[in-house]
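Go through this chain.

——
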Amino acid sequence: MKIFNCQRCDKRLWTSYHKLPEGTVVCNDCYTIFLMQTLDKINENQAYDIIYNFVEKYQKKFPHELIKELTRLLELKYNIKVDIVTLNEILYIIKNKIEKEENIKKLAKFERELRGKDDHKTHYCEICNIKLPKSEFDYSMDHYGKPLCLTHQREKRASPHALKLYDALKKRGIDCELESFDEFKHFDITIKNAKLNIGIDGEHHSLDPNQIHLDLMRDEEALKKGYAIKRYTLREIDENLESIAETLSHVVDNRIRKVQNDEYLNLSEKKENKTEHGHKQDKKHETNSSKDHKGLTKL
């Protein structure tokens, strides 16, 4: 029996291993990270809906010729180079996600029936049963083909690693948003009351010069608005999820106090400036009045 070491983490491989497209031999954990990195890149390059819709359409079986066409589409239009074996693995990851969503959808329908929510003019998120405003319902149907609240619309766009950290933060009572948009870019997670953006990045964020340049420009825009940025790698989320979430919970508490203190100081400074401006106006008025009085005395 031939024994390998994982060429990424150096773990001893006794039984099963995987080969990456370039031939690198890796363990199961490193292969999963590789797949998640590829999936995150698909998501970042706005091709996730294409993959998702492909899986929904061909759930039973993925035709080989169409998978080849899909790889060509990803490479030519979305600048994502992925081999057929890797794409197949990603398709099955999304297939499992869709099956889970379908099960939740059935349970949500059962729950609505039990609660007597049968008004066809009223629309509910098919996952959490929250009532949807018409505008939210219309947007969801146009973009996702199903009724989803804003939270679950964002979850549909979010990467698997962002969802893991988001859930871990929510369990700790942290008010955060997935896939928030700041008029310049999407951030994986935003904690608004702490003015903190969190990015979870694949390897290309550190190796691709164009991606690095784009990230720096986006971060500069966020900093101008007073937001701090913290970035994690996919591996860090996989290996230290709970520790990261716990650490962030303490950081968020400190950031909230800082933001509140900064806002108080800014408000105080504005009041002082306003008062100082008022005093200057009063002095100016007194000077003018004095001049007028002297003029009248001479007359």
